[in-house]
Write a structure and sequence with these properties.
14 helices, 2 domains, 12% strand, 8-stranded mixed sheet, alpha/beta, Rossmann fold
Amino acid sequence: MPKPATTTRAPSRNGSDLRGINRLTTDAIVGVADLVEAVHANVLDLPGVLGRSTSRQTRGIPGFVYRSVRGVARLVGGGVDAALARLAPALAKVDAPPQREALLAALNGVLGDHLAASGNPLAIDMQLRVDGQALIPKRSALAAALPDANGNLLIMVHGLCMNDRQWRRGGHDHGTALAQTLGRTRLDLHYNTGLRIPHNGRAFADALEKVLRAWPVPVESIVVVGHSMGGLVARSACHAAAESKHAWLSKLDKLVFLGTPHHGATLERAGSWIDRLIGLSPYSAPFARLGKLRSAGIQDLRHGNVRPDDGPHGDGIADGRAPLPLPEGVACYAIATDTGARKKNGSADTQSDGLVTIASALGRHADPAFDLRVPASRRWIGYGINHLQLLGDAAVYRQLLRWLQPEKTAPRS
């Protein structure tokens, strides 16, 4: 920590102030782990409503990364960069690639914008991948990596704090099952979920355009499935592709949203008090960026920002978006779930999957300009399913298959 400046007035107070600021920063970093860990624990525990949260710690790999971030912050007490330096040796000890990627995905979701801005090697670079391997956008490389590639693509886009390997749940993977049943070539987007959603949307649009230009066979159709934040990234990519006149957008046939917070995530709005708290004092304000509880990507979830000028992103609370309709000529589908049981009158029990409300997931909005107008036949609500269970639930998969199967061979409801 830097030495206090020399002064003739209350030197002990200056030293105390600096130590207090440093402690505030440290506590905020510890808070990063505390809140995100509590979120995962709550979802896994199916609490029903966000107000009945659990304080227990998560187990396994998620618990490891949260304990590591919390522990190094307390030990170092000098800011995010120093904490990450202490975390690196712990990451190096994780030999299994899936475990290490899970750790990095969680860390990038919370601090990914800072990692990228500071050139930290722990920052995730966006890639289109197959079986965890990055695709090189050259025809010969793609032909070698995908000898059985066809012109019908299925692209899976993961959500916050996750990666492309985490679609598999309980031995089932929506993407793998759909690709095999529908005869599509599966690709996965792997990205830093801590960056702004519009940034990731633009990068996704550009990366897909490069890959498709080099695709070894003519591209006939594209289907994109996005979970949570991934759905917003996909919408943002469509907007960016339209602006840049990318060719791939004309090949996009269907876009499916799984628990996507089109109009924001309740949890992010409820937690916005931390942003204001740490920025109240002129002493703590300079540290607010490094000690901030949520990354730029998580802040974009507050209202569902998808365009670069959507905001505000600092201490503002009001919805600063402009309406953005779903892409023209693309059949869009939305799945929402409720953690409770369906009531006898047909309504939902809790109106939320634990993180995203049913209305937000279906794109509904009181202002007609913001309502996404997803047709009733392309909306589906599942019950007794939380936000993470969307990734492996059998009923969710059956609904995906009904929508994505060619009409002439679609299974009967």
